[in-house]
Amino acid sequence: MRQPPIPSRRPVAAPSARRAFAVLGLSLAFALALLFGQGMAPAPASAMGNDNNSSSGGQAMAADPDFTAGQKAIEMKDWQAAIDALTAYVRREPNSADAFNYLGYAQRNLGNYDAAFAAYGQALKIDPDHKGAHEYVGEAYLQTGNLAKAEEHLSKLDELCLFGCAEYTALKEAVAAYKAKNS
């Protein structure tokens, strides 16, 4: 539970004003970096991983045969093979939020919602700011008819994605489609 703010004598900016100041500050930082030759090329996006790669060893994951087999099985939509490979991987690497997110994705696509929620929950326990896990658990909540929980994760993505991100956009569109279909 969040503690109430301590009263102060100076006015506090509204959330939208704070966001505007954050945008202004980041824009200034970007301009200064360009001015002083510190190119700020965006990091490549990974389809289901978190772009800050907070999981255990991004390159080690890519080189691991179980993780690689899990990714390939997902690409082939062989959900059970993905589950088998990723389960083996997370047994050895229990701190990989990305792997748990992939595992949740495979479980969800096989219709194993309880197992999917457990995997997404583990990914978010490891990395509470994992954008991919917030998106996919939100989609799982929509598939199980829980709009309120999906909107909680959409709200979290809105906080995490200051300038917007693919995960926020995808979940926002899924929520809108769900509302249109169910209203």
From TrEMBL:
UniProt keyword annotations, A-Z: TPR repeat
What protein does this entry describe?
Tetratricopeptide repeat protein
Which organism was this protein described from?
A: Marinibaculum pumilum
- Mind telling me which PROSITE patterns this protein's record contains? TPR, TPR_REGION
UniProt entry tagged with the keyword Metal-binding = no
Q: Which InterPro entries match?
A: SRFR1-like, TPR-like_helical_dom_sf, TPR_rpt
Organism classification:
Bacteria, Pseudomonadati, Pseudomonadota, Alphaproteobacteria, Rhodospirillales
Q: Does the keyword Cell division apply?
A: no
Gene3D superfamilies for the chain: Tetratricopeptide repeat domain
Q: Where are the TPR repeats?
A: 97-130
- Residues folding into a coiled coil are none
Pfam families in the record, alphabetically? Answer: TPR_16
